[in-house]
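Quick illustration, no need to memorize.
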Amino acid sequence: LLIEGGAGPERFVAVALPRSAELVIALLAVLKTGAAYVPIDPEYPADRIAYILADADPMCVITGLGAEGVLPADSAQVLLDDPATRKALDTRASGDLTDAERLAPLHAGAPAYVIYTSGSTGRPKGVVVEHR
């Protein structure tokens, strides 16, 4: 689903899930596409979430039905616990992706994830961490 939506190297995918097995699975799924993940705690204040999403400009947000209310309405969302998403995932093959299956080849200098600072001295700042 992520690759079909445009996820790949040099692209960002936000993940707004509580600490859980689903969070780890979502992070690994994003990394498999070659995209970088942007972790967002669904417990963050709505204005912080909105700022991070506007700043990082992810192609979509992986979340669950319980967290969708804290996300801006205009964000493209993949709802993991939505029956339609589950059905779509069940029809896809799982396994390792090759560079040929990704939208672009993955290289060591590509972003792996973006972590935001606490913003204690102003607005949070995104720090891009590469695969190397």
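The chain has three helices and six strands.
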